[in-house]
Specification:
Strand content: under 5%
Order of helices and strands: HEHEHEHHHHHHHHHHHH
Number of strands: 3
Structural class: mainly alpha
Shape: rod-shaped
Distance between the termini: 25 Å
Number of helices: 15
Helix content: 55-70%
Length: 433
């Protein structure tokens, strides 16, 4: 009574565990009365609704109270008072009309007593019948249990409606993983796209020239990488690949990569519904998701280390030695032809010339093989870099988007489990009651 703010009290000893609260009229013109009734109704165990012949169809009573509280109907009794004012033979018709109105409110089987508590021209009528019913019906423990069960059901229903936890689980992990991997792959393709592969191939060929070329090729490669070469505008492979790898620009590939993730979030928010769906749409809108994706790319590129660079093949050193032999052979053929000019005119095939041409052909073929291999190793390096980049982007996507989404979905699943337990508890209480 203290918690309810009830100060005016009258004691009674006949029913020591029973407290009767006389509430003000629900249609009272005093605003505080209605506020007080609304505050007390959810906290009492049973309610006797007393109406008179003029007000039993009152719209406020039915629309604002009874219809909204129909879930607690097992705690309700209804009294049609002042039947002494109803013409003889009309009481049953008025009671039937009241029962019909209550059923329209959702109270399927209302218990109604018709009586006259304090008629002006005689003793009370049928009050004792109500008192006898109350003595049999108002089992405090049963009422408390039924009230608690009704509260649990109402709580579960209200939470399910507000939060949208009325459907099956969202199966987030099974759906998230393929979308994350596909998105990361498309993003990596866009960042480490054809430009990087081309730069890596060029770097591989240049590396082959330096490692497997002859002395002249090595001199030219060294000149290209020197300050003089830089001053003359020669492009440096490392710098070119770093520039291509780290300076990405969104394009159509970016929108295509983002669309799959947007679609998943849209589907999840629609399926979640309620407060969870609203929160998901608010926290993971298109602008927010795009910003997180950009941040994931930047973080992955920044943490990716140096740009991909092909490694030399071990057998290129043999090609380099062969090129020295070729150079010496060509030089020897030239000396041979200079020292013995007659060798060029003797026989059908000038031997020094044939030896020199054969050496040049071997040298050119070996150099070409090394460059082709270098280009292939460059493509492999670019592919490896792309795979590492995709994995890094995927990790950042999971941390920036997947983890918050997974946490929200897990909270929804936990609430769904709690609501199921709440429903089971209400059913068990109802059976025990």
């Amino acid at each position: 009574l203290d918690d309810l703010g009830v100060d005016d009290r009258i004691g009674q000893e006949r029913y020591p565990e029973l407290v009767v609260l006389d509430l003000p009229d629900v249609d009272s013109v005093v605003a505080d009365h209605r506020t007080r009734v609304e505050a007390l109704l959810p906290r009492v165990d049973a309610v006797i609704w007393v109406v008179d012949p003029e007000k039993y169809h009152d719209r406020v009573l039915h629309a604002d109270y009874l219809a909204r509280l129909a879930g607690y109907q097992s705690q309700f009794l209804f009294v049609l008072n002042q039947i002494d004012r109803i013409p003889a033979g009309e009481v049953e018709r008025v009671v039937a009309d009241l029962v019909e109105a209550l059923q329209e409110d959702g109270i399927s089987d209302p218990t109604v007593f018709a009586l006259a508590a304090d008629p002006p021209d005689g003793p009370p009528r049928d009050v004792q019948r109500l008192a006898q019913h109350l003595e049999e019906w108002a089992d405090v423990k049963r009422l408390a249990v039924e009230k608690l069960a009704a509260d649990l059901r109402a709580t579960a229903t209200g939470l399910a409606e507000v939060t949208g936890v009325t459907s099956a689980g969202l199966d987030f992990d099974r759906r998230w993983e393929p979308v994350r991997m596909a998105t990361a792959g498309r993003l990596a393709d866009g960042v480490a796209g054809p430009g990087l592969a081309t730069a890596a191939e060029r770097a591989g060929r240049n590396l082959a020239r330096r490692k497997a070329g002859g002395p002249l090729a090595r001199v030219l490669a060294a000149l290209r990488r020197s300050r003089l070469g830089r001053a003359l505008g020669a492009r440096q492979d490392d710098e070119e690949m770093a520039r291509v790898a780290r300076r990405w620009t969104p394009g159509g590939w970016f929108d295509g990569a983002v669309s799959g993730l947007d679609q998943l979030i849209t589907d999840l928010s629609f399926e979640a519904g309620g407060a969870f769906g609203t929160r998901m749409r608010a926290e993971f809108g298109a602008t927010e998701v795009e910003g997180e994706i950009r941040g994931s790319i930047d973080a992955a590129v920044a943490a990716g280390g140096p740009a991909p660079h092909p490694s030399p093949a071990r057998w290129w050193s043999l090609i380099a030695a062969l090129q020295v032999v070729v150079l010496l052979t060509v030089a020897g053929s030239a000396v041979w032809a200079w020292a013995r000019p007659s060798s060029l005119s003797q026989g059908r095939w000038p031997l020094p010339l044939l030896v020199g041409l054969a050496a040049v052909a071997v040298g050119v073929g070996a150099a070409r093989l090394a460059r082709v291999t270098g280009a292939r190793r460059g493509r492999r390096a670019a592919a490896a870099y792309r795979a590492e980049l995709a994995e890094a982007i995927g990790r950042h996507l999971d941390r920036r988007i997947g983890v918050p989404l997974r946490t929200l979905v897990r909270s929804r699943a936990e609430l769904a489990g709690a609501l199921t337990e709440l429903g089971l508890a209400a059913a068990q209480l109802q059976r025990s009651g």
